[in-house]
Design goal:
single chain; 229 residues; mainly alpha; globular
């Protein structure tokens, strides 16, 4: 039996607050020079165990299950996952194409990846529009605080990964760094990873649950035999 679907704002409120808490914890951990394994301050913060990227599959599955219970699941979970996989493949091809065509222009590569990210986001929409909308709203709610922190880190000279471009990045001023390392990736690439990644994990989770339910339904007897028969 379907349950009432909460409003978009209510649906993403708690996940967004949890994500904000993790973001702030990451910032405090880096500024306090806590364990690099948890709070890596190097450019890009690779491998840090405290980070909101790990929440993408968690909340992708959470939103998917909430929508499915409210009767807004995908018609075909496999097709929903397929659209997400196709979107991922498109952006991957565009990214590698930019690496091949512009091997020495990191800025062009970033621009292509940013444009490709929004093309991929649009391509993923038909698979499960309801989850797509939720993930897009959550992605913006998750990434806008990061954008603010990156602005403060870059212009304030904070020793965090938010302010550090990769070593081969061309030299530029604060505004250039903010545009290319904060605004562009946070508002395109990371939104793409949230939407497409969340769709993929969410669709797979719903598909697995449906398969499990079908299996359990087959195990239930369709009729009963009276004791005196």
């Amino acid at each position: 039996m379907a349950v009432a679907k909460p409003s978009l704002g209510r649906l993403i409120l708690v996940p967004s607050l949890i994500t904000l808490a993790v973001t702030l914890l990451r910032l405090v951990g880096e500024l306090s020079r806590w364990s690099p394994a948890l709070f890596n301050r190097e450019a890009g913060g690779p491998g840090a165990l405290v980070g909101i990227v790990w929440l993408i599959p968690v909340f992708g599955i959470y939103f998917a299950m909430r929508l499915a219970r409210a009767g807004e699941g995908p018609v075909h979970a496999g097709k929903a996952a397929g659209w997400a996989a196709l979107a991922f493949a498109l952006n991957t091809v565009l990214a590698f194409g930019s690496f091949a065509l512009f091997p020495k222009s990191l800025l062009v590569q970033l621009a292509v990846f940013g444009v490709g990210s929004w093309l991929a986001i649009a391509l993923a929409h038909p698979g499960w529009p309801a989850l797509w909308r939720v993930l897009l709203a959550y992605g913006l709610a998750a990434r806008l605080p990061v954008l603010v922190i990156m602005f403060l880190s870059i212009f304030g000279g904070w020793d965090t990964h938010y302010a550090k471009p990769r070593p081969d990045f061309p030299p530029m001023g604060h505004w250039g760094l903010f545009l290319w390392t904060a605004l562009l990736p946070q508002m395109s690439i990371w939104i793409y990873l949230t939407v497409v990644g969340g769709l993929l994990f969410g669709a797979l989770a719903v598909g697995i649950r449906r398969l499990a339910r079908r299996g359990s339904d087959r195990d239930v007897p369709t009729g009963s035999v009276s004791a005196g028969a």
